[in-house]
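Hi V.,

Quick status before I head out on leave. The structure for the redesign project is tokenized and pasted below; the design run finished overnight.
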């Protein structure tokens, strides 16, 4: 904050009809300026971060790689962050399970990585990639980066990317950790009074949004009527289902009537408050100033109010205004000092209560442009492609800054309207799905500015809580910016979990695969008064970690709980986000979920035959031989099934997969103790399991029936001894567990004497237990010892570029032809790249994005 004199200066300039100073007035001024000072200090001492990911493609297929580059910047000016050195990037399947994770080292505000869509079991659908620093979690889960990517089933014909088959969201047996998307009525109407509330007898501007059941915008008209069905106002959509109208509310009940496709729909108007203030902001009339209008009604006492304007968590302007009378109080504020993007106007009283809140958007022509020039218009299959890229500023001056680049096969490409510009300046600072955000950056004319201002009125949520900044709402700084691979934990007593201060922790780190060598790292530290400890490492890859507790040189049987379960809950999808638009066809299909529609699941022919064979046996056992038609001897030629193919088939048809050592670690870090009990492990991993007892023996049930436990794909006989073999396995020996509910799979591994009907009646699923080889089973942890792992920075793969000047041509179905997370141009802003075409590409699709070290955004045009 510059000084309190600046506040007083604004008071002298902007106060209207100010009363003579007195003790009461001085007290109000002190309170208001206190909130302003606190707001400015918060932005200085609690800076924030943003993350954006640039992906190599707009959609993916099973088995594809997802390549991405990460830009980690400060929220205020979009400069490369100097805070966090560690970024977490997670891949979540449609059900909300984290199926892969990358821990990346942030250098100069950037890092890059990849995922492979090879997880079994695989479910097509909308996958979520999210990215965050641990420090960002202090500001709520809405602060993290999240992007939905459509992932399709592998084409039945290799390379035929016109096939875009996908399991509809909500179908399939896979676990669903996400909340179900909310479906509205056929026509939905929402009102957004400017500033937040309607106040009786004060004219207001009211924005509105009309959508269908899935949140898609509708074109419609309507009118407001009173109790006598007299028309008070009318309205019409101007852009993307939105519009606004002028309206003066009173205490009577009024309704809105929407006319859509020849049918009328009625909605209640929001009831106005009997007292209060309104705020109107004119951001369109002037290029250099923002006109503010404040007004109260007769029932509202006169009051001195404070107003601040903040952008991305930084205070840029503020003033005090004394609203004495019922006429509007108007004044102008300089907006040239505001940066590009979303700014927030907050009107508050001396109690720190927010009275009005309004978002505005400032559009400045300060961005870089990336252009390309190819050596020729079209290229033959497997031909070398040469391209020149140039980076310039708004004045066409060359800029030497690195950028991430993707060149794709443009045929059958899924359209994407998001880029680094729309995300950094718009989508990341408001809540909700923004349909076609690129539209608002196409031009800076009156039509686009009006549509953008309307969007600000409708989607008026913001990331930055003024109440926390002003100190009227508590803010807890739980996580500090990480400076490396950090591990935090606590030592507690074994039974009561009482913190153990001043005990010694010995840590051993051994690089996986190098256990026979000497310890790679060793350290000793002491817990604090609450039993906490922490250490930092700069390592790459996954390491085995052994932690041991001792007091005065003697090992102690205490529990070690590690603080690494900070990952956010999976977000709820919105139906408008689950859309697929093919760029060259311009046909859109929304992701609908009709309850009556169930996708057809086709079993492999060999599994159907196995099932029918087993079923035939069951008919024979039931004395129904006459129903079985026997053919003469036939010779059948077929490829012999391999064990590897069986295992792959079993995994791919499973509904759930668990890495047991990781799951066991997570359970321990939740403060739970399961000992060596496999039943407790199963119950904690999957809530469909329940304990049951028979003749004093403990068993598990899964969805009301017995699960069939199968160890290393060996069939389980229907004997008590064979069935209970899984209870004898040490948890340390179990590598992974798959759960499969397919009847044909259950029949394959159940006692062959059982008919399919008996199998279906008795078992609910197969629990496949895969164990480590005998010589790879970890040893048990000793007294006071925790054997676990430490996730270091992820290994970064290099994008594969085939060289057809050396390699012979072969079927090449690459969809991403070239990916480079860091292309560096020369001092003239130019960079040359070369890659080889695939088998069939005739149209290139290019995506290039950057942010300079000082926060200037650049996109491909």
């Amino acid at each position: 904050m510059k000084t309190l004199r600046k506040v007083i200066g604004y008071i002298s300039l902007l106060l209207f009809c100010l009363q003579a100073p007195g003790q009461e007035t001085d007290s109000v001024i002190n309170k208001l300026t206190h909130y302003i000072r606190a707001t400015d200090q918060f932005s200085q001492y609690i800076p924030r971060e943003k993350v954006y990911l640039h992906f190599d493609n707009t959609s993916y297929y099973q088995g594809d790689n997802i390549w991405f580059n990460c830009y980690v910047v400060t929220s205020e000016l979009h400069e490369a962050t100097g805070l966090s050195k560690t970024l977490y990037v997670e891949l979540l399947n449609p059900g909300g399970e984290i199926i892969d994770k990358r821990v990346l080292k942030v250098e100069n505000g950037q890092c890059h990585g990849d995922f492979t869509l090879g997880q079994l079991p695989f479910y097509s659908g909308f996958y979520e990639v999210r990215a965050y620093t641990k420090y960002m979690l202090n500001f709520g889960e809405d602060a993290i980066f999240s992007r939905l990517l459509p992932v399709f089933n592998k084409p039945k014909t290799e390379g035929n990317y016109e096939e875009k088959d996908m399991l509809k969201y909500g179908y399939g047996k896979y676990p669903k950790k996400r909340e179900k998307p909310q479906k509205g009525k056929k026509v939905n109407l929402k009102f957004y009074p400017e500033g937040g509330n309607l106040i009786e007898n004060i004219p207001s501007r009211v924005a509105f949004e009309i959508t269908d059941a899935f949140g898609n915008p509708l074109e419609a008209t309507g009118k407001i009527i009173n109790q006598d069905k007299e028309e008070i106002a009318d309205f019409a959509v101007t852009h993307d289902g939105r519009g606004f109208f002028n309206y003066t509310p009173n205490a009577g009940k009024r309704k809105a009537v929407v006319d859509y496709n020849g049918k009328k729909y009625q909605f209640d108007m929001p009831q106005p408050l009997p007292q209060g203030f309104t705020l109107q902001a004119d951001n369109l009339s002037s290029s250099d100033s923002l006109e503010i209008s404040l007004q109260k009604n007769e029932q509202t006492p006169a009051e001195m109010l404070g107003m601040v304007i903040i952008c991305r968590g930084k205070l840029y302007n503020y003033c005090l205004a004394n609203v004495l009378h019922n006429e509007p109080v108007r004044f102008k504020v300089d907006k040239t000092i505001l940066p590009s993007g979303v700014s927030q106007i907050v009107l508050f009283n001396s109690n720190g209560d927010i009275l009005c809140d309004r978002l505005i958007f400032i559009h400045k022509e300060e961005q870089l442009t990336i252009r390309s020039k190819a050596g020729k218009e079209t290229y033959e299959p497997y031909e070398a492609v040469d391209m020149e890229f140039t980076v310039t500023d708004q004045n066409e001056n060359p800029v030497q800054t690195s950028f991430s680049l993707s060149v794709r096969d443009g045929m059958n490409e899924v359209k994407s309207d998001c880029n680094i510009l729309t995300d950094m300046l718009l989508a990341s600072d408001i809540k909700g799905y923004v349909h076609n955000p690129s539209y608002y950056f196409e031009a800076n004319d009156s039509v686009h500015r009006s549509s953008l201002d309307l969007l600000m009125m409708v989607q008026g949520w913001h990331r930055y809580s003024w109440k926390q900044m002003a100190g009227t709402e508590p803010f807890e700084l739980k996580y500090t910016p990480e400076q490396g691979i950090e591990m935090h934990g606590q030592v507690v007593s074994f039974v009561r979990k009482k913190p153990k201060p001043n005990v010694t922790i010995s840590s051993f780190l051994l690089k996986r695969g190098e256990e026979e060598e000497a310890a790679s790292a060793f350290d000793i530290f002491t817990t604090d008064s609450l039993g906490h400890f922490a250490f930092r490492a700069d390592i790459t890859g996954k390491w085995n970690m052994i932690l041991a507790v001792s007091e005065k040189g003697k090992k102690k049987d205490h529990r070690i709980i590690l603080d690494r379960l900070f990952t956010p809950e999976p977000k709820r999808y919105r139906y408008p986000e689950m859309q697929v638009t093919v760029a060259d066809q311009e046909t859109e299909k929304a992701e609908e979920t009709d309850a009556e529609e169930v996708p057809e699941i086709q079993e492999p022919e060999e599994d159907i035959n196995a099932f029918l064979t087993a079923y035939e046996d069951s008919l024979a056992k039931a004395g129904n031989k006459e129903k079985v038609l026997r053919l003469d001897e036939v010779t059948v030629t077929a490829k012999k099934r391999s064990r590897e193919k069986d295992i792959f088939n079993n995994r791919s048809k499973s509904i759930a997969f668990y890495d047991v050592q990781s799951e066991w670690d997570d359970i321990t870090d939740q403060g739970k103790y399961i000992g060596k009990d496999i039943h407790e492990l199963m119950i904690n991993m999957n809530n469909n399991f329940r304990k049951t007892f028979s003749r004093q023996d403990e068993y598990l049930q899964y969805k009301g029936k017995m699960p069939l436990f199968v160890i290393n794909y060996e069939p389980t006989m229907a004997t008590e001894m064979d069935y209970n073999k899984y209870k004898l396995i040490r948890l340390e020996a179990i590598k992974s567990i798959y759960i499969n509910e397919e009847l044909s799979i259950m029949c394959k591994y159940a006692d062959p004497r059982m008919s399919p009907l008996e199998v279906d009646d008795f078992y609910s699923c197969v629990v496949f237990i895969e164990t480590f080889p005998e010589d790879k089973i970890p040893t048990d942890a000793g007294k006071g010892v925790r054997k676990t792992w430490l996730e270091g920075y992820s290994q970064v793969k290099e994008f594969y570029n085939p060289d057809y000047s050396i390699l012979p041509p072969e079927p090449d179905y690459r969809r991403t032809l070239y990916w480079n997370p860091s292309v560096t141009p020369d001092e003239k802003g130019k960079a040359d790249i070369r890659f080889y075409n695939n088998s069939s590409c005739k149209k290139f699709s290019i995506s290039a994005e950057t942010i300079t070290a000082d926060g200037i955004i650049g996109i491909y045009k």
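Above is the designed sequence. Confidence is low (pLDDT under 50) at residues 1-21, 586-631.

G. will cover questions while I'm gone.

Best,
W.
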